[in-house]
Design goal:
Low-confidence stretches of chain A: none
Mean pLDDT of chain B: 93
Low-confidence stretches of chain B: 187-194
Shape of chain B: elongated
Order of helices and strands of chain A: EH
Distance between the termini of chain A: 57 Å
Distance between the termini of chain B: 35 Å
Number of helices of chain A: 1
Radius of gyration of chain A: 18 Å
Radius of gyration of chain B: 28 Å
Helix content of chain B: 40-55%
Order of helices and strands of chain B: EHHHHHEHHHHHHHHHE
Largest sheet of chain B: 2 strands, antiparallel
Strand order of the largest sheet of chain B: 1-3
Oligomer: heterodimer
Mean pLDDT of chain A: 78
Shape of chain A: elongated
């Protein structure tokens, strides 16, 4: 049987819209 | 006794390491400034494989911040390119292929057994060890949908101005112009300037070009099928809508030309192995409209034949075409009011939609079936032209 590795840690991700929002605010902040 | 220790060249394990400060350069060279032409002759979807190998190294060193940062920058980079080049079919298709490939890689190497059934033992060694990227897969799937919609919008924008003249106005069947209804001037209502008319060959050439680009870039075959089903839906809807509004094209001769044009499109689909896309079935209302124009429209038997044939047209559409039908010459009679009433009576039990015209902007939901790759990460070569020499093979 396949050897089971230890459980992987779920990386939380923002949604596509949230990512865009963060990206827009970063662009606005930068001169 | 002397022992010679032979140092073995370290094997490439299919991972790419970079310093965090090089992330912006990586995204610039691999995403935002990349021209798809630079990758001619390399493995299709190379950027996706390189990105996966970078993610894998960040996973290997258990650096969640690096994984987050790389995925976020990649997604924002792709969005930036596509916003800037929002009418570039080649670029949009390229990033659709790569986004889907990256999504497939995150599944294929997730460690989830459901996605590993076709993996080789070597490929199984290349799975992620520390992180579960399920949520990022959702983001990439949403991004793929956005890119697909942009791709369809671009292709429709190119094809739409050609449809009416190519499907309804252009006469490629020899001798057919002699049997056109008299008293109508040739119109080019589809064009802003009346001189631009297209033949069916122009549509086919354009579709050949779309198809070649998508295949060369390694876009999943299932997605290519969905693109053509969608484009054929639009060809069907725009042509049928024009037919339902224009008396001058509701004639026997246009019906004959139209049927011929549709058969040319069917042949093209078969020639490109796209006939299983559902594109032909989507053209059924138009096929039936072409047949309706050619059928006899006089006796109760003719009415019966029309009703049993035109199952993909609504009663309203059938009646409209019959009302608009224009006899070829003085020897052919107009469709009588009585005949139309017979048809209406026969079809009254049908529960047809009320609207006459089709929504030519309707989009079918897209699906991205999992498509694992047989490529192994350690076999991938990074060409010098990508300027990624700061990536270390691990």
């Amino acid at each position: 049987s396949a050897q089971r590795s230890r459980p992987r840690v779920l990386l939380k991700a923002p949604t596509l819209a949230e990512m865009e929002e963060m990206n827009t605010s970063e662009e606005e902040e930068s001169p | 006794r002397q022992v010679t220790v032979q140092r073995k060249e370290k094997d490439f394990q299919g991972m790419l390491e970079y310093h965090k400060e090089d992330e912006a350069l990586l995204i610039r060279n691999l995403v935002t400034d990349l021209k798809p032409q630079m990758l001619a002759g390399t493995v299709p979807c190379l950027p996706a494989y390189i990105l996966y190998m970078c993610i894998r190294h960040a996973d290997y060193i258990n650096d969640d911040v690096k994984v987050h940062s790389l995925l976020t920058s990649t997604i924002n980079g792709i969005k930036k390119v596509l916003k800037k080049l929002n009418d570039d079919f080649e670029m949009t298709s390229f990033w659709l292929a790569n986004t889907c490939r990256l999504l497939h890689c995150l599944k294929q190497y997730s460690g989830d057994e459901g996605f590993m059934t076709q993996n080789t033992a070597k490929q199984n060694e290349h799975c992620l060890k520390n992180f579960d990227l399920t949520e990022y897969r959702q983001v990439l799937s949403d991004l793929s949908i956005q890119i697909y919609q942009q791709l369809i919008k671009i292709a429709e924008g190119v094809l739409q101005p050609m449809i009416v003249s190519a499907m309804l106005e252009n006469e490629s069947i020899q001798g057919l112009s002699g049997v056109k209804p008299t008293g109508y001037r040739k119109r080019s209502s589809s064009m802003a300037d009346g001189d631009n008319s297209y033949c069916l060959e122009a549509i086919i050439r354009q579709m050949n070009s779309f198809h070649t680009v998508m295949c060369d870039q390694g876009l999943d075959p299932e997605i290519i099928l969905q693109v053509f089903k969608q484009l054929f839906y639009m060809i069907n809807a725009v042509t049928l809508n024009n037919l339902l509004l224009r008396k001058d094209v509701c004639s026997w001769s246009t019906g004959m030309q139209l049927r011929y044009n549709i058969s040319q499109l069917e042949e093209w689909l078969r020639g490109r192995n796209l006939h299983q896309s559902g594109a032909v079935q989507i053209m059924e209302p138009l096929i039936q409209a072409a047949q309706l124009l050619q059928l006899k429209k006089k006796t109760p038997e003719d009415a019966e034949a029309i009703c049993s044939l035109c199952t993909s047209l609504s009663t309203q559409q059938i009646v409209k075409i019959l009302n608009l039908y224009t006899p070829l010459n003085e020897f052919e009679e107009r469709v009588t009011v009585g005949f139309i009433r017979t048809i209406q009576a026969q079809l009254q039990e049908r529960n047809d939609p009320q609207q006459l015209l089709l929504d030519f902007k309707h989009m079918f939901p897209v699906l991205f079936p999992f498509n694992p790759s047989s490529l192994t990460m350690d076999s991938i070569h990074i060409p010098a032209c990508l300027n990624l020499e700061f990536l270390n093979e691990v």
